[in-house]
Amino acid sequence: MRDSRGGAGIDRQLVAELTVFALAVFLGFELISKVPTMLHTPLMSGTNAIHGIVLIGAMLIAGTADSTLEQVLAFIAVVFGTINIVGGFLVTDRMLEMFKERRRDEDETDRE
Hints:
Layout: H1 12-33, H2 40-46, H3 48-64, H4 68-111
């Protein structure tokens, strides 16, 4: 698109999408920073399904991307979504292992 002065115009849809992205980043940061530390691990395990939905959406966007910018942003979204899912499962697994060890220690103490 070109504007009346002959320069390249900015696609309105791209501006709207970048605005939504910036607002989502800001809102996400504000919400996560307000969560008490004790709740981070249970919330991580509970949001793995949401991260899965984000990853599927990013893959759909990557498959229908027309421009190089869209492909790059979709690839970054897929990478970040994958990191979120894998990290969430690793944290959940580690949390569950901590509870298993605590139960073993309590069982051994009860036997003595």
